[in-house]
Design goal:
globular; GIY-YIG endonuclease; 5-stranded antiparallel sheet; alpha+beta; two-stranded antiparallel sheet
């Protein structure tokens, strides 16, 4: 499925090879003039705001991954997990996506990140001892809807949805990524 078919997303960054860092091989080159899906300007600070969002990774304009988050630090914080995945104790998801992005870039392909931002909903939030007024920045329902929309068009989940696409060996992370990740964890005592 092509990214141009998505009506609610807007581009926030290109991914480029990082030739100066000793470990991390990708970096994000953020769009200088951010425009939302309605072509309205938005501040770069919006990328650091805690909101629910879905991100889409497109390779040569073809959607490869749909994910989501609502972490503190906003969209940039989530993207930093991919950019810095060759340090510390990354999950196989962050590590594997980093390697996949690097491989695509080394093959000369264009790699882009797009986002769909959730609206904040003001509501009562239940705690253990009562309710407080607050804002919900949920993303999970949006992520599930986007994945189902994708599947309704293509008949399957995006190529880089290794866990979502089913059970069995054909749906695990590629062997070369699993082996690299295992070696990384041993070498770095993670």
């Amino acid at each position: 499925m092509k990214i141009k078919e998505v009506k609610t997303a807007f581009k926030i960054a290109d991914v480029v090879l990082n030739k100066t860092h000793s470990k991390n091989r990708i970096k994000f080159k953020y769009v200088k003039k951010l425009l939302d899906e309605h072509e309205e300007a938005i501040s770069e600070n919006a990328l650091r705001k805690r909101v629910g969002f879905v991100y889409i990774i497109a390779i040569n304009k073809i959607i490869k991954k749909i994910g989501g988050s609502q972490g503190k630090g906003g969209i940039k914080s989530t993207m930093n997990f991919y950019e810095g995945a060759m340090q510390g104790g990354p999950s196989i998801r962050s590590y594997g996506i980093h390697l996949l992005l690097q491989k695509e870039l080394e093959a000369g392909k264009k790699v882009e990140f797009y986002v769909i931002v959730s609206k904040e909903v003001k509501t009562e939030i239940k705690g253990m001892f009562g309710n407080v007024k607050g804002t919900i920045v949920a993303f999970k329902e949006m992520e599930e809807k986007c994945n189902e929309d994708y599947k309704s068009v293509t008949g399957k989940y995006p190529d880089w949805h290794f866990q979502s696409r089913g059970k069995g060996a054909g749906y695990r992370w590629p062997k070369w990524i699993r082996q690299s990740y295992a070696k990384y964890r041993i070498d770095n005592k993670v």
